[in-house]
Amino acid sequence: MKVHESQTSRFTIVGNHLAQHRTLSLTAIGLATHIQSLPEGSPVDIRTLAGKFVEGRDRIAAALRELETYGYIERRRERAEGGRIVSRTISYNHPEATRVRCAGEVRRPAAPTRAAGVPLPAPSASAPAPVEPVPPVPPVEPVPPVPLREPIPPASPVPPRPATAAPPRVTPPLPRPITPDLERQRVAAELLADLRRDEPRLLLAERDVRRLAPGVAAWLERGAAPDAVRRTLAANLPPDLRRPAALLAYRLTELLPPPLPARPAAATAPRPDPLQNCDTCDHAYRAPEPGDCPGCASSGAPLAA
Q1: What single DSSP character describes residue 117?
Q2: Measured distance CA(65)–CA(69) in Å, rounded
Q3: Which residues, other chains included, contact 27 with Cβ-Cβ below 8 Å and sequence gap of 6+?
Q4: Which of 43, 183, 195, 268 could bridge 202 with an S-S bond, Cβ 3.0-4.6 Å?
């Protein structure tokens, strides 16, 4: 669907030979349209064009080469005043028509002329007037085409990547306790069935309780307290919870705590020596064997009678 509005000012006529060119790139087509819309004498060098558009100098230079190859522009180097060499760009809005018109003007023969003062012969009724032969037109050399470079081949389309089927998602199994314990299994089942008291959305079917109970028992076996398991399973529930059993199975599997490390054996403090009575002063002191206390042994006091 196209919506056409009548334009009476500020418009440029662009032929389909340019707008629908099968070899020029879109950058070159847009650049040719921009150049044709500019007034006479506007600068169209690479630096000026790169300052106007987001394309860099390399892309603009490549587009100008494409337009020059297919005859939409012609760049000439001329000597300006002062001996400075400048580049002059000529834009052709229809290069093929220009070449045909120039070739026709060159091949058109000139009208024959007669020398001044020579009268034309009077026409005779009996014989037709002689026809003056037209001098042959010398052969005209063909006008060389404007393109000076080999046309740029179109970029080969990138083949689409083959669609690969996504690998099936493998659901990891629920954790299970290493040592079976009926009491731990009972506590795990009661914990799961009791979750709906605090969060009604965690209402589980009986078969889901039996399926998830070994996972809770594995948590309890690793030293997790029942209240801690309850808070972890019921915290930060999504607002659109539709499958509570699947959510609990995911959390029991992905958030499984590691086993508690073994506690190091407590170092036993050495037992003190037993109490002994000094044989000299009869004071109590600690020593492995009976005898004199350290004070009496150092003073060398005699034994009491």
Answers
A1: T
A2: 6
A3: 55, 59, 60, 62, 63
A4: 195
